Amino acid sequence: MTDRYQGFVSTPVGKLLVKNLGLPSPARLERWSEGSPLVDGTVLVGGRGRMADRLSKTLDSLGIAAVTEDPEQTDGTGRTTYKGLVFDATGLERPEELVALRDFFTPLLRRLDSCPRVVVLGTPPEQLTGAARMTQRALEGFTRSLGKEIGRGGTSQLVYVSEGAEDATDSTLAFLLSPKSAYVSGQVVRIGAHGRQDAVALPDWEKPLAGKVALVTGASRGIGEQIARVLHRDGATVVGVDVPQAASELQSLMAELDGDHLSLDITHSDAPQRIAHHLREQHGGVDVVVHNAGITRDKKLANMDEARWDSVISVNLLAPELITRELLDQGVVNANGRIIGVASIAGIAGNVGQTNYAASKAGVIGLVDSLADELSDGITVNAVAPGFIVTQMTAAVPFATREVGQRLNAMSQGGLPVDVAETIAWFASPASTAVNGNVVRVCGQMMLGA
Q: Which pLDDT score is estimated for 86?
């Protein structure tokens, strides 16, 4: 769907009004397409810590052009611009050393290409004490603030890398430095948390899910459809699940993707058993489980009837929990499998008229928290928390409300279903074994919420 405001501000009149009235000016975001390089430009690597010696090698293995010296600072020649900046801050141990961030970034911020990427690497503060803990925690405020300053479609992220997980950053850097993370900014990602520090080499970064089976609930339309398409693009055999009322759309999509389908109500008492049986008998198990199905039944709590409350909790929270437990208890999830929930910014920041929905989506985050230390065989659990994503459902929202919702983020625009799908594909990658227990917002760095 076209963003009419974005189109208007790119006209001569629109540019004049933006300049004189201080209106939001959303940049056109770059999104990845098959056959394109991960990064179309050069990434400058800086900082001195335990990651420094590995970074250039890691980026080179991903086909990303990286340099460790800025020509303008070394010999004063040319005016080099950069598509990305990566700073290793793992070596910062005292608050006074934080000035290294200013020294590195300040001269470079005016020399970034459009839609640039900034990634800061640190050590999880909870693994440190004293001044070192303070200093590493400070990185969060820095990267989130930079995400709101960078502009031009740029993003800023913080990646905390546990000691021992230094070689497991490939999939995360590939995602965060590429256009696949177009609508993800101001996020804190932990690598090596919850006992996962494995580094898995991928034989084919173009098809990381080749030979894998992916279950996607609510797959017939909207965000679920895009999740199915992106996982198929990455090589997975997709098993789509949706309600019987959507059977025709589901069957058409799965036929197009050479996938499989199940038409059932995920809240039915036998749904977990039917899904587990189908995956075991027809596919020998499952590698990726995406709990995308969700509904809204909005009312202020004073007017909330039991049916509205129960239906939302059942679909959005109870069904994912029961299906996950059944698949795990029966051993249907293969080793190095992925369980991925779709939460919401509403579950983090809350929303008027959505006490039931926000409770269910916060519960999805709780499901991630409860399972992260419980899983074995390299299985991980993570969640995405979308913000304002432009779908047919949001198109029905009143114009003024929709416009406000789209502009209340650092990118001044709504995201697309593919932005959620790309984030899920990063979690789903076999190389993301060390990415466990994370909740990543896909919200353009919404101004509300943590």
A: 98
